[in-house]
Amino acid sequence: MIRYKFSRTINKEFSAEIKKNVNEYFKKNQLKKTGNNTVLFKTIFALSVYLVPFILMLTGVIQNPILMFGAWITMGLGMAFIGTSVMHDALHGSLSGKKMLNNLLGLTAPLMGVDGRLWQLQHNVLHHTYTNIEDADEDIQPRYVLRFTPNQPRRWFHRYQHIYAIFLYSISTIQWMAIKDYIKVFNYRRKGLIKSNKEVAIRMTKIIISKIFYLGVFLVLPIVLFSTPAWLTVLMFLTMHAVAGLSLSLIFQPAHVVPTSDFVMQDEQMIEENWSVHQILTTSNFAMNNKVLSYFIGGLNYQIEHHLFPYVCHVHYPEISRIIQKTTEKYNLPYFYEKSFTSALISHFKLLKTLGRQDKIKPDYELRMAA
C-alpha cells in the first residue's frame, strides 16, 4: 500500500486559517468539540428505534406477520440511525469528551454485526486520509460490478450500473456482516494496518465471538421463539439488513461519488495539493437546510465539515459550515453542495450512469471553470 503524503506548502494559508477560524469559534463560545447533552437523548432514541420493535416481537406483543415485517423494517431504519448518529461519532471519538463512553457506544457496531476496529481502519484511517484516491480509499475500491471512478476499467455491464446499484447497496451490510470483516483482517495485515500475526488472531477471535452473539440474538433466537416459519424469519432478518444497507449507502455515496468530485490516480507518493483542499475537492454536502434529515443521519449531509474536522461532533456542523463557506470563498475555493437530498441522489446516479458509458470524464467544477 502506498502511503501518500500531501503538500505542506500549497494552499497552506487556507489550511491554517480554516483551523484557526473554527478553533476560535469553539473558544469564543466556550464549547467542547464533542457532543452536548442532546447527544445522550439521541443515543437512547436511536437504540430504541432498533431494539424496541425486536423486544416487542420477542415478548409476543407483535405476532402478526405483516406487523412483524413492519417491525423488522423499523429495525433496519434504526440500524441506519445508530450507524450514522451514534456509532459513527463514537468510533471517531467525537460523540463524547470521555473516551470510555465513546468506547462503550462504539460497541453498537457489533450490535449490528460489524467489527468496530476494522470499520475504524477502513473509514477513519483510509477513507478520511486518502479520500477518493485510487488504491488507497476503500470506499471507491474497484468492486468489479461497480465503477465508481473514471480511473477504473469500464466493462460492458457498467452501462446498467445506475440501475442495479440499488440492489448491491441493499446487500452491503449483509456482506459486511457475513464475510467482509474476515477478509479485511488479512488485507489489513498485508497492508501493515494490523501489525502482527498475534493481532490477527486476537482480532479474528473477537470477530467470531461477536458474530456468534449477533446472529444468535438477532437470527437464531427469533427462529426459535417466533411462531412464524423459519424461512420467513430469515427473510425478515434479511429485509432489515436490506433497509439498513440501502439507507446507509444512499447517505454516504452522494458525499464523494458525484459529478463535482475529484478522483485522484497517481503512482507518486507526494500529492500536489494540501490535505484540507483535497477534502474540499473530493467532498460534497447536501440538504443543509433540512434539519429533520440532518438529525436522523447524524449530520452526514455536512460531509465537508466532517472531513475537515472528523473529531468534531456532528451537532456543531451547521455552525462551522458558515465559517468554512466564508473561508473557501475568501481563497477562491469551491464549496460543493446540493440543495436537497433528492438532487444529491440524482447527482450520484447521474455519475454512475456517465461512468458506465464513458471512459474519461472531468469533474463538473472543472467544466465550469473551463467555461
UniProtKB/TrEMBL annotation:
Keywords: Membrane, Transmembrane, Transmembrane helix. It holds the Pfam family FA_desaturase. One of its GO terms (molecular function) is oxidoreductase activity, acting on paired donors, with oxidation of a pair of donors resulting in the reduction of molecular oxygen to two molecules of water. It comes from the Bacteria. The chain crosses the membrane at residues 39-60, 66-88, 100-119, 162-179, 200-224, 230-252. Residues 68-337 form the Fatty acid desaturase domain. GO terms for cellular component: membrane. One of its GO terms (biological process) is lipid biosynthetic process. This is Acyl-CoA desaturase. It comes from Mangrovivirga cuniculi.
